[in-house]
């Protein structure tokens, strides 16, 4: 019955939007984009809805069998909420998505907020337990998800949550001297400078607490962009503008790549003068992340459009630079997938991790479509977009059980046996890309 309902919904959707097999979008059949999106959403919803304990299930095995262990992390819960809310906006006649979004909203706001110190905890914990740190990165995703949910289910209660979370983020983490935000919010117990506390912080893997990091910053930019769409206060606009300038002008280097970490006054953490051995041993602090580079191209354009009504020329120039850097150095031959990370040794880019992560492939695929809109005479974006779709279907798609592997099987052969879902892999990156490109295809075929 479930599969029949899915096919009926898909048929109606195709008829409504006219995405027939003969219509193509940048060398890809629009019908295939639509079908893949519905399959993707059908893989995740309602499967991840935890009706017993609240929120969303996190871990599923390679065949979508629910795992025994179900750690619930804020990032995963927020991404499940965001994807459901966005799907509800696109497919308002499908009550499942609105119900799934409300389910996630209830769990995050009633089970994960720290009533004593404010902010959302990183993990869902039993009453009485305390977590020693919070991540602004995770709270940025919570703000992003709640703001997206406000588009389809606005309420006074929800807007109070948005204001409360935004105020906490600003008071707990904003740097009023140099601008931007810190990521690690440490409790009093862990903030003392002891060897044990230093070891604890290092184990977290988010760098020095006094540093500012690219990953948190670009997702705050993303969250503020969506927040401004539903709550366009002067303070939100001020912070959105601040983050756009910082990401675009301070984090992006002259070569068209982003640095990962920065000092308080925005000096990049750079190991290029160190030995190759040291660089590789400490690559989590300094490397070229091709996926984040090309994703950021989209995020700064989106922020600029929200602030100014259309993307300004400086933002477009930097977005093109970020995209072109990934195209030149990060892609496999013939654009057959995007590598995870690289580093420049002796003025030559070397790939230091050949994994082709699922999220990077989809972020790249989506950004290529966006860049083609702004630079239609540049055929490489259209060519790479089509090649990336082939890669996604041939190396990333599980044609037996459904869904996408963590990494492309051409460079990571054991992916077929690994979990389909875990705390860092939910329905968000691929879902967002498919929904955005579907919209581009509809506009194109209209």
Descriptive account of the structure:
The chain has about 450 residues and is mainly alpha-helical. The protein has 16 helices and nine strands. The chain has a three-stranded antiparallel β-sheet. Strands 1-2 form a two-stranded antiparallel sheet. Strands 3-4 form a two-stranded antiparallel sheet. The longest helix has 19 residues, at about 290-310. Residues about 15-20 have low confidence and may be disordered.
Task: List descriptors.
three-stranded antiparallel beta sheet; 446 residues; two-stranded antiparallel sheet; 16 helices; mainly alpha
Binned strand content: 5-15%
Largest sheet: 3 strands, antiparallel
Mean of pLDDT: 93
Secondary structure tally: strands: 9
Spatial strand arrangement across the major sheet: 7-8-9
How would the global form be characterised?
globular
Rg over CA atoms, rounded to whole Å, is 21 Å
């Amino acid at each position: 019955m479930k599969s029949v309902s899915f096919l009926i919904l898909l048929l109606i959707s195709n008829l409504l939007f006219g995405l027939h097999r003969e219509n193509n979008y940048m060398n890809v059949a629009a019908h295939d984009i639509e079908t893949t999106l519905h399959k993707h959403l059908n893989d995740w919803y309602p499967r991840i809805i935890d009706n017993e304990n609240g929120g969303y299930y996190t871990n599923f095995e390679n065949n979508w069998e629910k795992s025994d262990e179900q750690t619930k992390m804020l990032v995963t819960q927020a991404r499940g909420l965001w994807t459901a809310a966005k799907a509800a906006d696109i497919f308002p006649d499908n009550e499942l998505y609105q119900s799934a979004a409300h389910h996630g909203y209830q769990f995050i706001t009633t089970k994960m907020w720290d009533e004593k110190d404010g902010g959302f905890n990183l993990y869902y914990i039993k009453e009485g337990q305390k977590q020693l740190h919070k991540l602004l990165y995770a709270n940025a995703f919570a703000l992003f998800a709640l703001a997206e949910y406000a588009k389809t289910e606005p309420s006074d209660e929800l807007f109070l949550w948005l204001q409360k979370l935004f105020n906490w983020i600003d008071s707990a983490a904003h740097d009023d001297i140099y601008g931007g935000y810190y990521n690690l919010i440490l409790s009093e117990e862990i903030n003392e400078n002891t060897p044990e506390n230093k070891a604890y912080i290092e184990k977290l893997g988010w760098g020095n607490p006094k540093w500012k990091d690219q990953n948190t910053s670009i997702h705050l930019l993303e969250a503020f962009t969506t927040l401004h769409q539903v709550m366009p206060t002067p303070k939100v606009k001020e912070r959105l503008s601040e983050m756009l300038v910082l990401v675009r002008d301070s984090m992006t280097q002259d070569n068209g790549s982003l640095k990962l970490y920065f000092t308080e006054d925005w000096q990049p953490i750079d190991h290029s003068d160190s030995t190759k051995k040291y660089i590789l041993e400490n690559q989590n602090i300094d490397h070229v992340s091709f996926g984040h580079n090309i994703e950021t191209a989209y995020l700064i354009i989106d922020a600029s459009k929200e602030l100014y009504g259309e993307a300004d020329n400086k933002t477009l120039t930097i977005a093109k630079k970020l995209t072109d850097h990934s195209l030149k150095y990060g892609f496999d031959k013939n654009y057959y997938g995007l590598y995870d990370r690289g580093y420049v040794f002796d003025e030559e880019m070397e790939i230091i991790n050949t994994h082709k992560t699922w999220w990077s492939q989809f972020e790249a695929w989506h950004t290529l479509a966006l860049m083609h809109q702004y630079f239609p005479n540049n055929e490489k974006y259209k060519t790479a977009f089509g090649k990336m779709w082939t890669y996604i279907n041939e190396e990333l798609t599980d044609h037996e059980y459904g869904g996408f592997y963590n990494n492309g099987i051409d460079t990571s052969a054991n992916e077929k046996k690994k979990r389909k879902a875990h705390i860092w892999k939910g329905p968000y990156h691929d879902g967002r890309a498919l929904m955005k490109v579907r919209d581009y295809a509809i506009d194109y075929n209209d």
